[in-house]
Amino acid sequence: MSNTNQLSKEEVLHLAKLAGLTLTEEEIKKNAVQLAETIDYVQNLNELNTTDVAPTNSVVDLSNVTFEDGARNSRGLTQEEATANGKNIQAHAFAVERLM
């Protein structure tokens, strides 16, 4: 792949800031190359013929997965059902060791 869209150091730093990342000089150079390769790859999608492809916002064949107000959601679990197989249940919730 050609790196026709080489990102500048400033662009990489801007993207890193948006992502909450701190990068070293080496990481900036590496990410400039990798991001440019990603952009080139995505631009290849413009070559696809999509004239007969219907627009979609989901690949899952679901429709109207809601239920009427006040109706019981039979697909969901009650709190007791959700915690029935838990090893350490306290106050109707899963109790886990503190992580931090």
Write the layout of secondary structure elements.
Elements: H1 9-19, H2 25-43, H3 79-83, E1 89-90, E2 93-94
Antiparallel strand pairs: 1-2
Please state the average pLDDT score: 86
Number of strands: 2
User: Beta-sheet strand percentage?
Assistant: under 5%
CATH class of the domain at 9-47: Mainly Alpha
- CATH level 3 topology of the domain at 9-47: Histone, subunit A
Structural classification: mainly alpha
Distance from N terminus to C terminus (CA atoms, Å) equals 43 Å
Compute the CA-based radius of gyration: 24 Å
Offer a few descriptive terms.
100 residues, mainly alpha, two-stranded antiparallel ribbon, Histone, subunit A
Could you describe the 3D structure shown?
There is one protein chain. With 100 residues, the chain is mainly alpha-helical. The protein has a domain at 9-47: Histone, subunit A (Orthogonal Bundle), CATH 1.10.20. It has helices at 9-19, 25-43, 79-83; strands at residues 89-90, 93-94. It has a two-stranded antiparallel sheet with strand order 1-2. The protein is flat, with a radius of gyration of 24 Å. The mean pLDDT is 86.
